[in-house]
Design a protein that fits this description.
about 60 residues, mainly alpha
């Protein structure tokens, strides 16, 4: 099982197209996480949290 994982990992590293796609997705996730921590001016975080907490449909998505 571990050998199969290493083979697939080696395939990702050796194939340039696949490597670029994986790096793009990882980069996008990192940028998203960094930007999610930056507060937006004019948005009341407590009011937004209260609104999202009261909404039952969005509560299902959480």
């Amino acid at each position: 099982m571990f050998d199969a994982f290493i083979r697939k990992l080696r395939l990702i590293v050796e194939d340039e197209t696949l490597r670029n796609r994986v790096l793009f997705v990882l980069g996008a996730l990192i940028i998203f996480r960094v930007l999610a921590a930056i507060p937006i001016p004019g948005i009341d975080a407590a009011a937004l949290a209260s609104y999202l907490g009261d909404n039952q449909f969005l509560g299902l998505l959480n």
